[in-house]
Amino acid sequence: MSPVAPMDAPGLSRRLCLGGAAAGVLTLAFPMPALAGAQIEEPLIDSVRTALGAAIRNTAPPVPEFKDTESRLAYLRWLGEMSERLKKKLPDWPTRKEFLQTVWYESRRAGLDVSLVLGLVQVESNFRKFAVSSAGARGYMQVMPFWTRSIGDGNPSTLFHMQTNLRFGCVILRHYLDRESGDLFMTLGRYNGSRGKSPYPSAVFANQRLWAFKDSRPD
After folding, report:
1. What tens digit of pLDDT does each residue of 120-167 get?
2. Please, which residues have CB within 8 angstroms of residue 88's CB and are 6 or more apart in sequence?
3. Are 164 and 170 in contact (CB under 8 A)?
4. What is the CATH number of domain 32-210?
């Protein structure tokens, strides 16, 4: 399965590229309850509806494809580094590999920085697949069940499937980013239901820095 071209994102790289190296043991930089359950149900454009529907139909993890050997090696270096950082959260290697492979694929598919998505996952669920909030938000990216109703499926248990949850979370985040004209601060607030307030975006940005990757490939 090859990634589709991401939706246009004017100014995205400038807003998403936050510097900072990963630091020590991965802990929540700003401990706080995940409140993605405050997301607001709203009409979806066709491209968003199609992307969410495809996630529910897919059962196998996505397989990254690369244009050349160097791109593949760069991915493997990233995978190795992220695997070491995530080991305490997901001790089982096959599960850890599938998670990282899927979050890498879905982030790129949506035109998002993978470190941002990892930071958001850490804030929302601390990498717990079966996390459920008091509002009923589910899984790694704490997706609300109404999103499954909006595409006609309506089965909230599908949100515990790894690819479905990560696809939904990334597509929703991308949808909000487009609605906010590329303003990532407002986008994260919208995802969390605290639009315009700083605690949640600040927490995600801080945790994003823990997942930053600088390729140390020799020249």
Report:
1. 999 999 999 999 988 889 999 999 888 887 665 668 888 999 999 999
2. 25, 26
3. no
4. 1.10.530
